[in-house]
Queue: 3 jobs
Job 1
Amino acid sequence: MTNIEVIRADITTLKVDAIVNAANSSLLGGGGVDGAIHRAAGRELLAECRTLNGCEPGEAKITKGYKLPAKYVIHAVGPIWHGGKMNEPEILSSCYRNSLLLAIENNIRTIAFPSISTGVYGYPIEKAAAVAVRTVFEVVEEHPEAFDQIQIVTFSNFDYNVYSSEISTK
């Protein structure tokens, strides 16, 4: 039985098999959680990311975690919000699904997600939480034995409450 929970924490400090990075398409670091993960992991992460030739929105790629407590980093590129007119929900769902499928391929049992696309990409938190939680539950239903724990990691109390409310409806 997979434990799915929302926590308020710094994702770079978590002792899980993998953390997910809300990356930009270059995979070469940026602001927000992306920059924090790159800083915490060290230069080796950037060097490995340079070999991956970027990543398309909705896709995910995996690297080692280097100086992070997590063994791996799964880099997922979310959509930039354009009012929902540019397939943003489908692309965001694809981020979570592809990250979880990559985790299964790499025998990752514990994984932590940030709130993908809700920072500088401007995706409204309530809409993003609905997509994220629905997709996580769908993948767990399709692969019930794949994960021990899936965490959605929030930074603010507001985001924590939005995701907690969404999970409570499942």
Note: The chain has a mean pLDDT of 97.
Job 2
Amino acid sequence: MIIVGGSSSRDLAKELSNTIGCAYVQAATTRFPDGECYTRIDTESLEGDVVIVQNTYPDSNLIEMFLLQDAVKKMGAERVTLVIPYFGYARQDRVFKPGEPESAKVMINHLGMMCDRVFTIDIHKESVLDYFRCPHRDLKAAAAIAEHFRGRGIDMVLSPDLGAKDRARDVGERMGVPHGYLDKERLSGTDVRISSEQVGLIECRGKNILIVDDMISTGGTIVAAKQALKGAGAKSVSVACTHGLFVNNALERLTGNALEAVLCCNTLENEVSHISVAGMIADALRESW
């Protein structure tokens, strides 16, 4: 097996190759002055099984993934596996108005033209992967998050809304602590309201709370949840997510909001991506071969 690291996932790809104990090749990717992508895999050949580790977010990384797929095929790869730590366009999975594309399906149809197996991590809606005609599997980061926080004094795990309650349950059960969820009402693209009445029913007074979610974009949900929990008497509030998008200075907003900790997995590499998913990816790759 040979791991090829795209520009969006260099550190994760290197750690994955070290964990498995296989060869690693870093794609040399640059941008022309007009913004077009140029990439090259600097090795003689790529025979056998090749794993490309690369995000499809933002659009520039999606284009790089297409080019890497073509390159490894031309270099002799017999089987190509895509490891997509963060799958861009997964949230655009439905058509709401006439004239809109099925964006997630379009991206999958193109990615699926030159691959034999696909792994994603906590994709927004797992059902979109069924558009792939090859074997596919979405890996769950709950185990990695639970392992990171085990023994750090967390008393309760909560999700910021009903939709993520299964994630909170998974992390909480792995850590051996109670779990639950908050009641979120979205007011706008950046602002939400957390029901103070519902928070009052959660026994959080004097406890260290961990909020878990699949992704953090603007951070509005986390700020509202922290304020509601602290208002209800929580001792501390930490937050962990799989994908730290942190758009529009969201990370600065969160770190300046008296949270005990703000962490994410290394699906998107940034200054707080200290929870590694390399081990779980390595296990999945070993099982599939």
Note: The longest helix spans residues 59-74.
Job 3
Amino acid sequence: MFLSQLNNEEGRIFMREVAVIGIGQSVFGKFPGRSAASLGGEAVVAALKDCGMHPRDIQVAFASRAFDASLTAQRVLKGVGISALEMVNVENACAGGATAFRGVWKEIASGRYDIGIAIGVESMTTSSIAGKMIPPQGDDLEGYLGMTMPAMFGMIARRQMEEYGATAEDFAMVSVKNHHNGSLNPHAQYQKELTVEEVLNSRMISEPVTLLMCCPNTDGAAAAILCSMDVARKYTTQPIRVIASALLSGSYQHLQKDICASLVGVKVAQMAYEMAGCEPKDIDLVEMHDAFANEEIMRYEDLALCAPGEGLQLLRSGATKIGGRIPVNPSGGLLSLGHPLSASGVRTVCEVVLHLRGQAGARQTPNAKVGLAQMLGGVITGMEHGVAAGIHILAR
């Protein structure tokens, strides 16, 4: 079915309802003996098995990888018997996996294909930057002057302390919460609980941000199979609907009046809520970008889970814990799972799907009906931090 067949008499395009029916991921960790293709293949096989689909049924594939990327989809899929179809490879910093997922969603929603797979994969320990901090691009003046990610979030943390009364203990509590969640997740790189004291006493990285307030470099992959709703019902009685998919790039840095708030994060959230026809109060759980512990508090406000300036109160109330009013990063987040950059944007979707199915085990959100997966990232001199941002809202 082509787009022309979906147009109504007023020239508007009808978008078909799309569902996620298969999910899979590798264990996240450091695997210097494994290639990105083998990690991706593991996730794809798991996704196919999850929904009982044959590899030949896949019609289109989008894959994302940030480092040493070359024909990622083709390299991953040839090993599992998928070839001779449209494959698109994308890169969008930490939002790469979210971008791949949206690419497949658009192809199916538009009617161009009925079944597709989104893959996010990264092998940081075998990449050209193994053992190093992510280097700035050649024209990244701020990066060469020291505005690395840790430095940026250290500055934001200081601002949060000055403006809102945040403490280092508050930031540590985010890490403690997410490492507790990760201890319940067999796919997490670190399945160990931490105390506030352990987090605070770990090596200082960019004051007040300590080592255990930072996400680790990680290898891993995740995959999700999407299809039209009529096809989904042939494979499962429990399709998870994609009720919103939004992707947006950031604006110019001089327009960002407050480093504790993300303009692009707020805008993409508003787009997603409008598309889904829901409000923040309707969301039952959130998987989000928490590369640094204090960042999670910022994102509460970006997503309107609370009013601007009230992220600390939300954290301190316990609402974002497993069993709280709005669990955030019940998977363990980037802090516990680790952050294989391009994989994270697909992995967050997989986690939301598990909760909506009631399959998340000890970290299950009770009676979850609607979940949100957010991922953003990237730094470019002269643009607001979080250059690219993607949000998907799913419902059962």
Note: Residues 1-11 have pLDDT under 50 and may be disordered.
